[in-house]
Design goal:
CATH architecture of the largest domain: 2-Layer Sandwich
Shape: elongated
Largest sheet: 7 strands, antiparallel
CATH superfamily of the largest domain: DNA ligase/mRNA capping enzyme
Helix content: 25-40%
Number of helices: 24
Low-confidence stretches: none
Number of strands: 25
CATH topology of the largest domain: D-amino Acid Aminotransferase, Chain A, domain 1
Radius of gyration: 31 Å
Structural class: alpha+beta
Number of domains: 5
Oligomer: single chain
Length: about 675
Amino acid sequence: MTEHEVKNRIDKLILEINHHRYLYHVLDREEISDGALDSLKRELDNLEKQFPKLKKVDSPTQRVSGQPLDKFVKVKHSKKVLSLADAFSRSDIEDWRIRNEKILKTEIKDYYTELKLDGLTVVLTYKNGLFWRGATRGDGSVGEDVTNNLKTIESIPLSLRPLKGRKIPKIVEIRGEVVMSKDVFLKLNKQRAKDDKDLFANPRNVAAGSIRQLNPKIAQSRKLDCLAFEIISDLEQQTHQEVHQALNDLGFKTNMDSRHCKNIDEVEKFLKHWVEKRKKLPYETDGAVIVVNDLKQEKILGHIGKAERWMLAYKFPAEQVTTKVLDIEVQIGRTGALTPVAILEPVSVAGSTVSRATLHNQDEITRLDVRVGDTVIIQKAGDIIPDIVKTLIKLRSGKEKKFIFPKFCPSCHSPVTKKDGEVAYYCSNKKCYGQNVEAIIHFVSKKGFNIDGLGNSIVKQFVDQSLVVSPADIFSLKIGDLEPLEGFAQKKSAKLLEAIESSKKVDLSNFIYALGIRHVGEETSLLLANYYTNLDKFRQADFDELQAINDVGPEVAKSIIDWLDDNQELLDNFLEQSIDIKNPKILNSKLAGQTFLFTGSLATDRDSAKNKVRNLGGKVVSSVSKKLDYLVFGDKPGSKLAKAKKLAIKNIINEQEFLKLIK
């Protein structure tokens, strides 16, 4: 080919490659395969090597640039990248609206709301339509030139697409957020686990760290993404909604999970919609940005201090917050174990107000060095009881008090004992009132008989009135027993009795779990139900036979035998109440003998995932050991993933891989 023909071919290749890049990385569509696109890129690369003077600055081959830098150059932004004021409630948003309307002297009828991605803010500058420079936010006035690294991100166009009917200025400045998807993050950590490297903490840190690497090939290997959210230059846009449309037209990827809102009520609907649904998004997000949609109003509002007046960052409920320990109380459980509980200064965490957190046992209190009066970090994920994860010792005033474990049961005042080889303390009285109440609460719980409407306070009321002494007494309650009680009208009494009656049909595994046998939890109950297949056989279990069941050791076997020796009369009472115990079905054995452990936040319901494993013959465990077959990890997996890596667990898989496995 002549040089002229090569130039034409190069121009066409660039147009074609950019077209498919835009389809794939911005619109999430594809017209040709990856292999075909790679072939086009190879042809372009070969032609540019043969005719180097024909190489263009916006060529797709320029996404990975030359040698690593020695250092980053500081650059001054044309306009300050200001911060956002935070909001945590509807009242915070209302206060913001009122302040702005006072300044504007008119009602604001137009808002634009978009999710706030958790990444690294960058400023992208285009000269004559070509990507000229990319910089970090820095301190808002001065950032670092990271152009070479940003060029490796396919969703950042190297040249702007033309705008219909509008002229693109010589200089165009765009702001965006560099992010790493959850899937890429999980795969990256999985590989690091195999390579025996430290795991990354979260996608945001990896994205930010990758952009600040002096070698652009590291950034390229991380498969980062960039979503644009603002145009600083004047492209005749009138609203923030038009800004987003113009960004798409120019070739940028934007966050499609955004909405034009006519008022604050519509804004609130948007926020409520994404509080839970955000967990299924491909990217991490910690809130949403609410902006005044009209750009003329934005200019009038301007900024105050370091924050723009016309935009607000609403933060989704945090899963970790700080609060104070007001006291430490001791509660008694169904097995007689004493559990210390921190009484907290009420605080909102993960969307609900909490005032208590479990401290598990004395060893945990010692490990955390938590004292009454301490400031602590608590965490709550989903329905899990809050935990104290750290004590902020540097905030102590000197008035904090150490906790001393009681020598007598707080319920019946019997002596407290500690068994050899255990960390827990126990009440020595088997007929302890507190134990009995907790045993009945356990019996009626969701994983037991699942009696709807029979909550903790009602159970306590029944025990206090001597209507229920043992769990079997629940099934002999009559409407005449309930109606005289405070808070029990005829309708409520009838509804509860109906729930009790319907609960009489129960799986054998749920029945065994409900009995509250020490050391027999959900998994062991399932093992016992599958082994014995009916209640009569289970009642006649012997020590040696129990030990022959996989994962039932001598301590568990002894606990079961001791319980059966003491409670045959209770089992007879259940049968007299016409309890219909359903024997287990034959399981699909696809996962027979395989153990699974779940860690981190899953998009799939955790209980549902566990049941899928069990229904395929597998077993779910709660801790990492060398015997573990599969560790399934979701978002923010924590220490269990690190331990599995250390023990070289063969199958460390993410949620998507798990769903494929059980399909």
